[in-house]
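Hi V.,

You were right to ask for the full record rather than a summary. Here it is.
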Amino acid sequence: MDLKDVLSKLRGVKRQGDGYIALCPAHDDHNPSLSINEKDGKVLLHCFAGCEYTDILKAVGVERKRTKQSRSKKEKPKKQAEGKETGLTLKVYAEAKALSTDHLESHGLEDCKHAKRNAVRFPYFDVDGNLVATRYRLSMDGQPRFVWKTGDKPVLYGLWKIKEWIK
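Predicted structure:
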């Protein structure tokens, strides 16, 4: 796997520092969350939304080359810790709120991954419709229920609707 090959298979690629950022192909990404770098001839991929490395490779159609060391290790399936949540989906959230998923999607809510857990992404737009913050709902009643995208500041939800409400 070579850096140029991987970059050619990604959308929204931009140079950032010593590497690149792009839209992650392993989830429905609207803001570049995939970091791409190269170190010692190896392509390093990291999705800040929590997608697994193997899922990213699969989404771009690249097979991971196994080294002698990684072939000799037995890969153990990841087990979900007993009682630990796997996160929240838009369908479960919609049912809990007695709303349709279509209605929630019309407001920009969507399924995503956050820190390797299922989550619902809530986009927050300013008065002009520009995305200014993202909040993730991780569970209906567990802790934490909500987290903000790193660096985003809380703002009022629905600001982009103000112009239509005051007409």
